[in-house]
Amino acid sequence: MSLFRIEGLVKRFGGLVATDHVNLTVERGEVHALIGPNGAGKTTLVNLITGLLKSDGGRILLDEKDIARLTDHQRVSAGMSRCFQVTRVFAKETVHDNLMLAAQAHAGSSLRFMASRSNETALTERAIALADRVGLGAERDRIAGTLPHGAQRALDVALALAANPKLLLLDEPMAGMGPDESARMVRLIDSLRAGMAILLIEHDMDAVFRLADRLTVLVQGKVLMTGTADEVRGHPDVQAVYLGTEAEGHS
User: Fold this and answer.
1) What is the pLDDT of residues 61-79, one digit of tens each?
2) Which residues contact residue 241 at a Cβ distance below 8 angstroms, ignoring those fewer than 6 apart?
3) Do residues 3 and 197 lie in contact, with contact meaning Cβ atoms separated by under 8 Å?
4) Are 131 and 158 in contact (CB under 8 A)?
5) Percent helix, strand, coil in the chain (nearest 5)?
6) Residue ranges covered by each domain of the chain
7) What is the phi/psi pair of residue 131, to 5°?
8) Where would you tag: which of 158, 184, 200, 206 has the fewest CB atoms within 10 A of its CB?
């Protein structure tokens, strides 16, 4: 049974059907990429999945539980976590304090910022482990806002991992990165797949084809096809509506 399923998901904005009976599955341990041209409905679909938008029809199932009517916070508790297109870190705090706050929030501990937080051994160990997990172990004492862009994105991933997600949604994690930073992010994402399912939204098609076990192509709110990288790369309709344009640099 798939870890995550969307069945017949619909979202309307007035007379515009932004997602038109979308079906999608993500398997345990899979990196599943969602691609499509600008305006295809990818952001709307991700916002429906994470609860920032409410659907007008269909089901969203995580571990066979329909979460379509849960709030975004309840979906996190159910096992879903997301990294947004724009990095969201506490820029004036250290890497360690960012991770302590995230670990504290998801552990259900007191959110007192000045008292026992630093003395809670389990949270400290969790923060250290998260930093190491994303390659920031040597940067724990650094102010987050002074990190290079790629390292801030890695910290953002670590903050999402603090929730111990079953499903991790990564929304354009390579955006704004140079080749070296992108390569490090690809290695990080690849290292995460054993512990969770990943739904990846990304315009860097080289990264997508390196990472994705399967891809779903969304066009005008509808699923054009789902398949392996080779199947998607070789499909003439995909080449016409997406790969032949955005893959040449018009993303």
Assistant:
1) 999 999 999 999 999 999 9
2) 37, 217, 219, 224
3) yes
4) yes
5) 40, 25, 35
6) 1-79+166-179+194-251, 87-164
7) -60, -45
8) 206
- Give CA 20 to chain center in angstroms: 22
Q: Is 54 helix (H, G, I), strand (E, B) or coil?
A: coil
Q: Give the span between the Cα atoms of 152 and 157, in whole angstroms.
A: 9
Residues 6 or more apart whose CB falls under 8 angstroms from that of 98 comprise 89, 90, 144, 155, 158, 159
Q: Would you give the DSSP letter of residue 94?
A: B
- Homologous superfamily (CATH) for 1-79+166-179+194-251: P-loop containing nucleotide triphosphate hydrolases (3.40.50.300)
Cβ neighbours for 215, distance < 8 A, ≥ 6 positions apart: 32, 33, 34, 35, 208, 226, 227, 228, 229, 232
